Amino acid sequence: MRPSQGGQPDPGGDPRGTTQPALLAISDALEKNKADILFRNEIDLEAGRRAGLTPSLLDRLALTDRRVMDMAKGLRDVAAFPDPLADVLDGWDRPNGLKIQKVRVPLGVIAMIYEARPNVTVDATGLCIKSGNAVVLRGGKEAVDSNSILVHVVKDALVKAGLPASSVQFVGTTDRSVIRDLVRLDRFIDLVIPRGGEEMVSAIREMATVPVLSHGRGLCSVFVDREADLEMAERIVLNAKIQRPGVCNAMETLLVDRDIAAEFIPRIVRRLAEKNVTVHGDSETQKRGGGAVTPALPADFDTEFLGLELAMKVVGSTDEAIAHINAHGSHHSDAIVTTNEETARKFLAGVDSAAVFHNVSTRFHDGGELGLGTEMGISTQKLHARGSMGMKELTTTKYLIRGFGQVRE
Amino acid sequence: MRPSQGGQPDPGGDPRGTTQPALLAISDALEKNKADILFRNEIDLEAGRRAGLTPSLLDRLALTDRRVMDMAKGLRDVAAFPDPLADVLDGWDRPNGLKIQKVRVPLGVIAMIYEARPNVTVDATGLCIKSGNAVVLRGGKEAVDSNSILVHVVKDALVKAGLPASSVQFVGTTDRSVIRDLVRLDRFIDLVIPRGGEEMVSAIREMATVPVLSHGRGLCSVFVDREADLEMAERIVLNAKIQRPGVCNAMETLLVDRDIAAEFIPRIVRRLAEKNVTVHGDSETQKRGGGAVTPALPADFDTEFLGLELAMKVVGSTDEAIAHINAHGSHHSDAIVTTNEETARKFLAGVDSAAVFHNVSTRFHDGGELGLGTEMGISTQKLHARGSMGMKELTTTKYLIRGFGQVRE
User: Fold this and answer.
1) A2 pLDDT more than 60
2) In the predicted structure, residue A26 carries a pLDDT above the cut 50
């Protein structure tokens, strides 16, 4: 077992790290205890129905056979990843003989504050353990029965695998005031990750003295350049808007180069209308798109619709598209469709976002799709973690300096 | 010129980056304008003397021929470093053909808030420009004349080298309320770096909505293990305490293994007394060290003396030393002296500090000594930057994803 605070990698051993057996044991235990887990989840669901939770909240709360198996599989995927703590990030010698290494170490203790989804209990725990951290879990009160049994199963498996039970802590009280206390324990907690609505996240940011890393708002744009393959542009626009409109990496704003507006706008507006997407267009979009386009208000270009709606605007150049995105977007995920490599390069360099795409749907900004394993969310902050946050974002670094008695003159 | 916000590296070109000519031009201009700079500094010094500034504050405020030359040399050193923005940190392909890169990009706009030392104006500007950032400078009111001329010289050289004058902004007003406004401009400023006393830094942390990176407090310890080379231990202890006692990487606490206490303590106490160092010792240290040791209060082990004083304690094991350091230290720089590699490894792994040393004085935790070039300070935070902060800590990352029309199913 690693020390829970700032341990150093063991250069030998399994490349997947010392926590692999524990993660596999939790995975097995979830499958074995599936019936109990579903039973306890049903208690939460029943209470939720009586309390009048919305269908979408009930859906997020619900566990199914499949969802439990997915949690178990997620843990096996994380277990199979190379140990993030095995990385010596850099190393060099100094002329005076000092040997310097920069190594990756756990942050220490991570607090997760989340809402209805009980799978976060398992997913977050998996990433925290893999990266050598202890985790404090504070789930929503709607899911308290589900989370209790999940934590019980997790801790039981952890202990059997030889890790301390205290590496996973569950805050069972549903009293909301505990959150304020939790996020101010900066002597004991190294990072708070809130997962939930914008209001919850900003309340935590306001209260916290512990550093906060959070999932960012996604106001994503697609720019269709004058040299775009229009068939590809259509496919990417429809995918980015429609495939799952309620998520952060869905497109909210479509920018079209003036040179192709006459050809592309009628076509894309028709296809969007077929899919029941409301288009809020500027005057040129209205002119080209006809009656299917409703007039855009200025605020539409600053709106994360999270549904079958989008804002659309004609721009005169790649520079204008870049300027619009940097001014109105949320620096999350933005795409250009173009066959011109030079234009693409300009866009990739100029757009100040966590991920910038060339001829790819923005929907690919996701830890799994990028090949990082599961993710803790997508950060739009610039410090510490930007974009998809995986296990490496739960670590920090440390300098190790070895010598033979050197002193400074 | 790079875009000031989130620009992408140009893979070709000079390995030292596109800002090298500007940095060299500023360096030359400082040397050329030395007389004017010293003249304006003398105005600040004269006002400071009239206002009754302490000699140490006047010393920090004072520029000399040598100090101006050192600033110019510092810029040349920074210019010679490899371009931090040229790094493609990672790159891989996905089975669906997506090509993914993680590149380093500037943070954007960095605000420096500092006190008397006018050299910060030049040092910070050099690191910010090298890393592709714009900088907003807010120096102390005692140094306003010196900073004005330095900024004038810097901007003039920048513009002649083809960079925009706006890449360096100077807040000339000495009104303190401007600091509060500045650190809340999170829409325009990406990072605030306060450089100054603990009180100033914590006030800024409290007010700021912009992320803050700051130099941390240094309560550093040296542990002399039972298998230490005692001659080496003496040399390291004396260096870490005495060579420059007022700085953050000086030793404040000395821990000695019980097995060597009878031999080492009388010897080191005598040497420390010769150098006028007051030793606050626990009961065992008092017993071994005799009359030269004053009884330690519990608070002495939590005190950053920053002078010719230290706290000293006997411990029974390496584990006890590690536990003491993790509980009482400031997670900055700590050292072990031992000839036992296994004990050293345990200490390096177990001590949760930004830098951990084996048989080396803690005084080496410094950007220059570690070979990072000049530094912005030493962070004891765990997020984003830990330990010596150089030019790379002024950058963030960005995912670039290239494809040929991929959409998500």
Assistant:
1) no
2) yes
Res. B221: pLDDT tops 50: yes
Would an 8 Å CB–CB cutoff place B212 in contact with chain A?
no
Q: What is the mean pLDDT of residues B294-314?
A: 96
Q: Could you say which of B98, B243, B354 has the minimum Cβ distance to residue A398?
A: B354
- For an interface test with A, the pick among B358, B372, B382, B384 (most A C-beta atoms closer than 10 Å) comes out as B382
The boundaries of every CATH 3.40.309.10 domain in chain B are 220-364
Q: Is A353 part of the contact surface with chain B (CB cutoff 8 Å)?
A: yes
In chain B, which residues have their Cβ closer than 8 Å to the Cβ of A400? Answer: 348, 355-356, 358
- According to CATH, what is the number of the domain B20-215+385-402? 3.40.605.10
Query: Which pLDDT does position B94 carry in this prediction?
Result: 96
pLDDT digits (tens, 9 = 90+) for A310-348: 999 999 999 999 999 999 999 999 999 999 999 999 999
- In this prediction, residue A368 carries a pLDDT of 85
Which of B94, B384, B400 lies closest to A348 in CB terms? B400
Average pLDDT of the residues in A353-359: 98
Residue B282 contacts A where some CB pair is shorter than 8 Å? no
**DSSP assignments along B80-138, one per residue:** HSPPGGG-EEEEEE-TTS-EEEEEEEE-SEEEEEE-S-THHHHHHHHHHHHTT-EEEEE
Q: Chain B: nearest CA to A145, how far in angstroms? A: 33
d(C-alpha B308, C-alpha B279), whole Å: 9
Question: CA B19, CA B82: separation in Å to the nearest integer?
Answer: 11
Q: Can you say how many angstroms the Cα of residue A408 is from the centroid of all Cα atoms in its chain?
A: 45
What amino acid is encoded at A35 in this protein? A
Q: Residue A396: its chain B contacts at CB < 8 A?
A: 382-383, 386
Homologous superfamily (CATH) of A220-367 is Aldehyde Dehydrogenase; Chain A, domain 2 (3.40.309.10)
The pLDDT score that the predictor gives to residue A13 is 62
> B interface mutation test: which of A184, A352, A363, A381 has the most B CBs within 10 A?
A352
Chain B partners of A100 at a C-beta cutoff of 8 Å? 370-371
How does the average pLDDT of chain A come out, rounded? 92
List the single residue in B190, B361, B396 with the smallest CB-CB distance to A406. B361
Contact A390, B43 (CB under 8 A): no
A-proximal residues of B, 142-161, CB under 8 Å: none
Q: Is some CB atom of chain B closer than 8 A to the CB atom of A392?
A: no
Q: Which ranges in chain A are annotated with CATH 3.40.605.10? A: 20-213+389-402
ipTM for the whole complex: 0.90
Angle at A228 between CA A227 and CA A232, to 5 degrees: 165
Distance from CA of A239 to the nearest CA of B (A): 6
Predicted pLDDT of residue A195: 87
* Euclidean distance between CA atoms B253 and B243, whole angstroms: 15
Nearest to B191 among A211, A243, A383 (CB): A383
Q: Using 50, 70 and 90 to split pLDDT, how confident is the model at B338?
A: very high
Q: Cα dist. B74→B30, B78, B134 in Å?
A: 11, 6, 19
CATH superfamily of A20-213+389-402: Aldehyde Dehydrogenase; Chain A, domain 1 (3.40.605.10)
Mutate to test the interface with B, among A324, A399, A409 (most CBs of B within 10 A): A399
Contact B400 A243 (CB under 8 A): no
Report pLDDT for B372: 82
pLDDT band at B18 (very low <50, low <70, confident <90, very high): confident
Q: Note the pLDDT tens digit of each residue in A233-250.
A: 999 999 999 999 988 999
Are B27 and B58 spatial neighbours (Cβ–Cβ below 8 Å)?
A: no
pLDDT per residue as tens digits for the range A256-271: 999 999 999 999 999 9
Chain A, chain B: beta-carbon pairs less than 8 Å apart: 210
Contact in structure between A225 and A257 (CB atoms under 8 Å) = yes
DSSP A212: B
